[in-house]
């Protein structure tokens, strides 16, 4: 087809062969083979010139369209083989998105300008459904997930801190024992947030009984912190959220737990055996390097 399109453009075998880098006999043979496959005469050959047959006139334009489409297909395949190009649909949980996305977006902008990053903020269960169904490619969330068919790429561990009213008896302390959580008026996120479950696990480990009241008052960390500032209780925040959520109010104070402080692990998650696994592993390593300035403990890949 390339040979025929060249002859149709130049109407000269030698010029057509030179244009596409073929020998003249090979080009003539290729056109003859196409005529045989299509069972139609495309050219009228004379000793002095080459003419398109009526069928050749009709098919020449179609041949160029087909060749252009094949070229685009090959270009798309090349792009698909190239790492960090095309679309990457990243799912992020709400208790990570506001605090880590600036680092993620800066990395993508600086290191992967050909990557079309699309961000979806959802709760963990919805993200896992999206990953399983192919709606999402990669997740950024707290682990472990315990989900079959999902591979986790750990990024870092980060401590939880206690956010209190500024006049609270634990305000500003750097050696808070976990046992203090047994008696505090604790404010937590709504059902469905993994951070709520993690906080409750920490409280259980500290010896807080199931009968102790826990006030569920907010759908987001910003609202929780405002409630703390209003004197309604205390809450647990991951260290990466601390500056964003507490710098705005002088009514808040931060307390730090004695070692070992309660913590959470944040990771990327992908489908086991994902076609882009090597690319995602490289992305995880780049994220670890980009997050070294955050108040976290970077994990090895």
UniProtKB/TrEMBL annotation:
The keyword Transcription regulation applies. Residues 1-53 form the HTH lysR-type domain. InterPro entries: LysR_HTH_N, LysR_subst-bd, WH-like_DNA-bd_sf, WH_DNA-bd_sf. It comes from the Bacteria. GO terms for cellular component: protein-DNA complex. CDD domains: PBP2_OxyR. Keywords: Activator, DNA-binding, Transcription, Transcription regulation. GO terms for molecular function: DNA binding; DNA-binding transcription factor activity. Pfam families: HTH_1, LysR_substrate. Belongs to the LysR transcriptional regulatory family. This is Probable hydrogen peroxide-inducible genes activator. It comes from Streptomyces eurocidicus.
